[in-house]
Amino acid sequence: MERPSLEINLPETHEEGKLYVVDSLNNLNKLNVCPDESQHSLDEEESTRGTGENMAGSNTRNQRLFFVTFILTLIISLALVSFVIFLIIQTRNKMDQISSRLLSEKKNIEELKKINNILLKHLNQSGIKD
């Protein structure tokens, strides 16, 4: 019994189209050559449909996991940003305190210089020299 040739000249299509046609021809060839395995291949297709439902459930779980991870990342980021803002404010307050101390010390130094100049003038007027 002679079987017809399944070789077909494929027009130039996209790669996906070519793969689909080749896959379809392979499946047709398997059905013609191995009729005993045809029931087995149908059973495999039905089992892959069942796993498709499992994949949908897995996809939903993956989406939930991604969403929970995303929310946790946002919360942690918000906490870190709040902490950094708190540190910036604290640093600014400390810098303000230090600059006010420096200004008061500068005033004290200026006053000490004036007192020193007054003492030197008084000592020079009194005639006491080193």
TrEMBL record:
The keyword Nucleus does not apply. The chain crosses the membrane at residues 65-89. It comes from Oxyruncus cristatus (sharpbill). PANTHER family: LEUCINE-RICH SINGLE-PASS MEMBRANE PROTEIN 1 (PTHR36475). Residues 35-58 are annotated as: Disordered. It comes from the Eukaryota. Pfam families: DUF4577. The gene is Lsmem1. This is LSME1 protein. Keywords: Membrane, Transmembrane, Transmembrane helix.
